[in-house]
Amino acid sequence: MRNFPMEVNEPVLNRLLDKLLEQRVITYEEMELVRSKSRADKVRDVIDMVYRKGNAAKSVLIASLCEADPYLSRELNLK
């Protein structure tokens, strides 16, 4: 797989964070903590945070990425 943190742009990352918050995968505080970091660190932190929360959270992350950036999702073979 290609280097995922380098492939996600800022608008897609913001949509992912909003969706994860809406779906209650992350808290508002977690979202704000992530938003205070550099883009690559944001992506890594989101992945780590969500993966620690289990398979249901991972599924929401993947579905949200597929919705936010269909092209990148296909490039990463997520669909």
From TrEMBL:
Location of the CARD domain: 1-79
User: What's a single GO BP term from this record?
Assistant: regulation of apoptotic process
As given in the record, the signal peptide range reads none
User: Pfam families, from UniProt?
Assistant: CARD (PF00619)
Q: Which SUPFAM superfamilies match?
A: DEATH domain (SSF47986)
Tell me the protein's name.
CARD domain-containing protein
Q: Which species is listed as the source?
A: Amphilophus citrinellus (Midas cichlid)
